[in-house]
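Notes continue from the previous slide.

Worked example: a multi-chain complex. Inputs as given:
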Amino acid sequence: MSYYLDFREYLSRLEKAGKLVRVRREINKDTELMPLVRLQFRGLPEEDRRAFLFERVADGHGRRYSMPVVIGALAASREIYALGMGCHPEEVMERWTEALRHPIPPRLVSRGPVQEVIIEGDALERDGLGLIPIPISTPGYDNAPYTTATHWVTKDPETGVRNMGNYRSQIKGARTAGVFVYPTQHIGVHWEKCRKLGVPLQGALVIGGPPSVAYTAVSKIPYGVDELAVAGGIAGEPLELVKCHTLDLEVPAHAEIVIEGEIATDFLEPEAPFGEYCGYMGDRVMNPVVRVTAITHRKDAHYVGILSQMPPSESSKIRQIAYEGQIFKFLKYDCNLPTVTAVALHESSGSWGYVVIQMRRTNVSDPWRALMAASAFDATVGKILITVDEDIDPWDPDSVNWALSFRMMPHRDLRVIRGKGSMLDHSASPPGIIGHLPFPDLEGTSAVLMDATRKWAYPPVSLPKQPFMERALEIWKEEKLPALRLKRPWYGYELGYWPDEFEEEAQLALKGEHYRTSEKLATRRVYGVTLSGTPEERR
Amino acid sequence: MSYYLDFREYLSRLEKAGKLVRVRREINKDTELMPLVRLQFRGLPEEDRRAFLFERVADGHGRRYSMPVVIGALAASREIYALGMGCHPEEVMERWTEALRHPIPPRLVSRGPVQEVIIEGDALERDGLGLIPIPISTPGYDNAPYTTATHWVTKDPETGVRNMGNYRSQIKGARTAGVFVYPTQHIGVHWEKCRKLGVPLQGALVIGGPPSVAYTAVSKIPYGVDELAVAGGIAGEPLELVKCHTLDLEVPAHAEIVIEGEIATDFLEPEAPFGEYCGYMGDRVMNPVVRVTAITHRKDAHYVGILSQMPPSESSKIRQIAYEGQIFKFLKYDCNLPTVTAVALHESSGSWGYVVIQMRRTNVSDPWRALMAASAFDATVGKILITVDEDIDPWDPDSVNWALSFRMMPHRDLRVIRGKGSMLDHSASPPGIIGHLPFPDLEGTSAVLMDATRKWAYPPVSLPKQPFMERALEIWKEEKLPALRLKRPWYGYELGYWPDEFEEEAQLALKGEHYRTSEKLATRRVYGVTLSGTPEERR
């Protein structure tokens, strides 16, 4: 089966899979829309989350919009994300690895549906961005509507190499918007080069391409690698691009909406507050402003947004899976750690800070190589980094805490390192400084590394052996008890230490012959000893 | 309403509350019984767990037992535990505190139903413990059936002060059982005194009293305080006791079963393996042996057990709540830390290692006093200790990880300490030594302390304000979307940093007047600056 041509093909796939809620009543985009989707992130298990399609969108002043709004379609859950990748959830990590290792360059075509409708001239001046039903994400705190699934395409003015990245945009007027640009992000490199050249930076904001476009836009792909080629790698076929109407840039031919504009490089202007992935309101920051030159969109275009802010959210899910794939590929292939079996970023850390590396421990060094390499992957990714064994579910915080409790000894298995940075970590420095510093002092912020793999053989996991649990499962179903969602492990297994004698005794007990074991043990009595002696004394 | 007179009164209360599953089919106590109850601990949310009453119990050799078996009645969930305490779940911690501060001594009565049936003489010699349907907890690994809700009453042979503690007992023969005795536990102190006096230690194993008896038996109550008086403190009335049939000991008059015996003090004998709370099989250990002198029980007695082993389990839940109450009382009252609002032991650590202290931060010292005092509470309790603010749910690992990710800076807020001990932590030393050492070397094991409280004002939590989330909840219900279990926080709130100007802008945005904000911000443009300057330059 070939990959999705466009967002709407993907949307009907979601609906067939039972992953789409259609809301037909009129919904206020600024006060009702995002809170409704938010509820499922605070109140439903991840596997029950769905995408929401709002068919009739209005604002609080009687304005009705012709475009429907879709939220949650890209990454409301890992299952939805896998549908977007066109694979099973357990294949996502290897699919990402393949796409990064074998990108497929996009193909330029002469025309595409994204330019079926072109807004320019008077219509742009009068209505412009106001035609698009962009919701307020955090009503009561955000100072404007912001685009969220907001893929900015720019080019390096010197090399012509393209970049696409996800940078929020504050709607400032019919023809003006802010762009959140961090100096180390690739759009920031382009902006700075244009600033020195004394020219504005051309930028095209893409909304609603095939899901591969969104997945690559939010990921940390090295400078100079074309995200649109990695999107082709995900799809297994080249993405079709068209030339922009007013810019020397190319955008996905089958996107829903493209906002074309010039980003001024001669000044910065205050932007935000806007709710951020760290779970707190993002502070005011000085950012560039874009002057819109045209808006193009498909007939019956859908506005597509991501639910971001307090994790877990769609934003933490979409970033989680992309970063997991990239750190996994980095550790396994680039750092030559083939024993790494999975990387899990916890959404509770906004998919930035809490990183669990699942691996097969072969020696004392491998976990530490993995921890140090993962902490070096990016200044701002990784504040609490943990290695676990293959029998630990790295995404389940209880499973990881079980490993920390019984496989990690702090004085031996824990290190604190400095020289890290932070994007939106308010524990680094107090708020209130415009342009909040990522490095509060010359030693930077810090991370804690913990090796929670087993250092030696362990006794079996204390759960009934598999056949007994499977039999119990049959009885459970026959008795019509409530549906189970079993967590791993749900039966016992061995971990290296289980003497033959213990196995024999367990078998005797199952036969009801445990008195025989007791008779044997009675022959090993030791007389005249205390409880509190050394093991040898007690033995 | 007065407290439960006995276990069966409590059981009918559980059934009325919809918290009891009756299994009427014949169940094999050794291979089917515990695995069936286990499934709910691996596959259902805590609030859906119930107690199981097995009406028809057999073993694999055609033997049918007259006693029914009850598992999960004491602590399958926090809700069930609260029913057992006779209060609401949110009152449990203060109820424990009250009982510890105001114990009510028990009252001796001349007779009680626990002695309606007396097994001694030939019947004891021939059948004895074999009459009781004690299940195998971890079929395939355990070497015998063991009692689990197993409250041993003993007396200090010098002072006569009573102790009751929960110590597992391996069924070794019709009249013999092991007793797991740790030297620092109070039964261990009694045993050692008797050993020096050259006499056996009298012990009565109580099964199935009113739930207060089980709750105090598993807790860490200081030496010399009578657990049966604390049980009275929980009940708000004295517990009725009767004299044992063959011993100089008193036991709850309304218990289901009492096993009376003499614990030999002149020898130790190998005992276990048995599945342990740490999630691994407990190793072989040298332990005392009890010689049963009589078994007494009620007509139609119920055998009551606890599901233990791999956490979460009933054993980790019952210990969790008792320790939480005791550490809370210790910190708040004994250590003069009135700003402590809750203590949470995570079941993933077997309710031993992972301790979260919720408190109102008033200065830099209080969190560290709380962390150090909690780590000093007991050698073996507390390996990962964390302080959090009042808006963090200390029981929710995602909430705690959110706090660690954005309120804790490792180099400033984390310390590793030595001088701890461990009971069953295999990361301390390899298995295979009988009597596994709690202190592997002269510095002991270690703990990590982390202060994850906010050190300064933070921006608001990035969720829509309460009225918008409440309105969304109305729409959610009207649209008949799936039932929610909302996690805290589910709406935004302020944390000290939110300038008036930001509030005004948020209000303008709700009115659709955000272009006015943009016009204001445009007057604050700064020309000729880079993105990567200092905040002042960028400002």
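Summary box: Chain B has three domains: 88-305, 335-451, 466-538. Residues 466-538 of chain B form one domain.
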